[in-house]
Amino acid sequence: MEYVDFPKVGERMYRETLENGLHVFVFPKPGFQKSYAFFAANYGGMDVRFCLDGTWHDTPAGVAHYLEHKMFDTPEGNALQKLTANGASPNAFTSNAITGYYFECTQQFEENLKTLLSFVSVPYFTQESVDKEQGIIGQEIGMIEDDPDWKVFTNLMGALYAHHPIRISVAGSVESVSRITPKTLYDCHKAFYCPANMVLCVAGDVEPERVCQIAREVLPREPGTVAQKDYGPQEPEAACQSLREERMAVSCPIFQLGYKGDAPETGEAGLREQLLGELACEVLLGNSTPLYARLYREGLINRNFSYGYDSVPGCAFLAAGGESRDPEAVRDAVESEARRIEAEGVDPQLWEQVKKGVYGGRVRSLNSFENLCIGQAQNFFAGREFLRFPELFADIRKEDVEALIARWVTPARTALSVIRPKGEEKA
Amino acid sequence: MMEVVRRELLPGVWLRSVHTHKFKSSYLSMTFLVPLKQETAAANALIPSVLRRGTAVHPDLESLSAALDQLYGGAIEPVMRKKGESQCVGFLASFLDDAYTLEGEPILERAAALLGELLLKPYTQNGAFCPDYTAGERANLIDRIRAQVNDKRRYALSRLTQLMCREEAFGVDKLGDEASAAALTPRKLWRQYQQLLRTGALELYYCGSASPERVEGAFRAALEGLPQGEERVIPDCEVRLHAVPEPQIMEDRMDVTQGKLALGFRTGGITCWEEEYPALVLCNAIFGATPLSKLFLNVREKRSLCYYASSTLEKMKGLLLVSSGIEFDQYQQAKDEILAQLEAVRRGEIEDWELEGARRTLIGGHLSTLDDQSRLEEFWLGQAAAGLETGVEELAESFRAVTREQVAAAARKLELDTVYFLNGLEG
Known about the structure:
- The structure holds 2 protein chains of 2 kinds.
- Chain A has helices at 63-71, 79-85, 109-121, 127-145, 148-160, 174-177, 182-192, 208-218, 268-285, 290-297, 327-344, 348-365, 369-381, 389-394, 398-408; strands at residues 2-6, 11-17, 23-28, 35-41, 49-52, 55-58, 73-74, 77-78, 89-94, 99-105, 198-204, 228-229, 243-248, 254-260, 306-312, 315-323, 414-421.
- In chain A, a hairpin with a 4-residue loop joins strand 9 and strand 10 (99-105).
- Chain A has 2 domains: 2-229, Cytochrome Bc1 Complex, Chain A, domain 1 (2-Layer Sandwich); 243-421, CATH 3.30.830.10.
- In chain A, the strands form 4 sheets. Chain A has a 7-stranded mixed sheet, sandwiched between helices. A 5-stranded mixed sheet of chain A has the order 13-17-14-16-15, with helices on both faces.
- Chain A is globular, with a radius of gyration of 22 Å.
- In chain A, helix 9 crosses helix 12, helix 9 packs across helix 15 and helix 11 packs across helix 15.
- By secondary structure, chain A is of the alpha+beta class.
- Chain B folds into 2 domains: 3-222, 2-Layer Sandwich (Cytochrome Bc1 Complex, Chain A, domain 1), CATH 3.30.830; 248-424, CATH 3.30.830.10.
- In chain B, a hairpin with a 2-residue loop joins strand 6 and strand 7.
- In chain B, strands 1-2-8-3-5-4 form a 6-stranded mixed sheet, with helices on both faces.
- Chain B is globular and about 60 Å long.
- Chain B has 15 helices and 13 strands.
- Chain B is an alpha+beta fold.
């Protein structure tokens, strides 16, 4: 086991790759009451088509999320309850790119860790339990479809991308999940839940060596074969659709504005692009910009306005949104500001201050064990060293960010998703 | 490891200072506690947002944002909270801890000064708030009041308390109502602001690496100019011992795909000041507050009657509130089952694993508050509103001795007061 120090952010990370290919990362946190463990598979809602042992599988939308729900079933009962009964707060999530299982606890960490590693690595599905889950997931799908924030974002992905499976809802639809069988779940588990395709990140007042020892005891000895993923044909540069609208029971229009980027690079270049993307948002429409102040003054945006860069394998984008009485006006204003930056450049004082702001925000976010562990896992899967950002920060130049804005924030790459209030249809 | 000091800086102005090196950020808040009242709720809710728009020194959002960026992207957010029948009005702030600045420059004094400036030195025109800022934030507040309907889960709970406590201050929403908000002018708001400055009990909070002495110095300097002489009193909270004789049934209809059923109970006078409080907290945990609870396991998992079903306590007010998401036609079954589960607790039908699991979850959950700056601030503000000095560890300890019979006794004191059902549109 070796360790790396990241003095600028006050972190030390122990790391080890076990014989079965599992990557383990531990952040010792003396003085903290709670410990946090995050066990994740490099497998998410967008990995619906894959090749395992020479056979291509086309699985129903929502299967990764369904699998996540079903993993908690064990022959001895429900693992969620076992962890909870033992004082831990467990949960799990499925994103487009990854599935993560975690718990935090203030006592009996080792026992809880064993439970976590065991239920995630041992599949146990029966026809009866798979059928029963249809009802629960069906209700969950019903609930998120009532959620305008979820809807507006899903619609944005559908508008930006022509083929890439990021378009697919992570939860799937009532119809798609009805096609899931125990065999589908066993296939997907075999394809992606092998140690070589997973990471374990732990933060807390724990012994790094013990974490590895427990992982060795509980997990399979063989690394397994990782399935090959297929994200479909290459995405065109332009957004697939420039405007997508829907009506729901909301009080005021909500919107998401997206700018389609180039497919992200792997490794350090990818981390650098992440920083460039964040900084691009900050200088273009961030809280400190003249544009933000004007939109806010004119009542076109409010405090709910938020923005950011995001990427998964095969796609990267900038998105900004919130509530607005006139989302098109916001889109047009951002477009003009991008052209102004292209012509005149970013104000040097704004640049310096925004850089400091983004840096401080990133360091502060590491207070959260969750951010630390999930960030480490996600970046590791994408081939990046998460905590190296202070070093990269030093050599990012204003011109790099201006170039990214000029390339990405163009009318062709723009999509706008709007949820308008019901009952205001024009006659 | 963590030193907590509470000191009265001026009459009715208290500073709680938590000294620790655990975090990468420092966390500050300044909060006025005033009685929650229909007439003043909207004005009080609007004040921090208008203050956040500009000060005499930093007259607009751009200059404020620049000042925050200079402090490594610190965040200062206007917040309105409700603790019992106190409306808590002020600012929450988080800054990079001095230990992590790039050149070792101290941030605390500048951060506290900026916070004090926002609270005490607003940007004014003609001796009152600037009409532009007032109008803009008033519109935002109205949007927020209207937007409460978007999150149906929270909306149902807020409708429940509104209807159940319509004759009590607790029934007033922390944001006030739309009509009162719409009637606010810069002058009216200014008068309310002066009132707040003169008579609001003021709670100051700091958590970070600076010594309590240094923190006190920074806050004293920041509050220079706070009007003095009038009494500042933390508001009381009315506790009704019993429910209305016959439970009230209330229903709203709305275009939603899932119904929401919420039940409000009076706790028979058990509140955070009573000896039976730990037993009530445990009772709530066993009944509906954890994934191991009777509501979760039986109503949701076993009988699939709800997508979610959980309960919460209003510890000062003496309320226990149940919230659930159901199919429209399951109203009666879900309600019956929820009440049946409560009956089981009342009869003391609590398995060992339920009792011990809930106990462990509560102790763990409380102790982990010590690891989270925002939760810790929230905890201490709640204690300040309740006039309690009990710390997190002591409270966690109080759950150890609670017996099954004490839990059942607390459950027997619960009286159903109001049932609220958010139904779909007819037909």
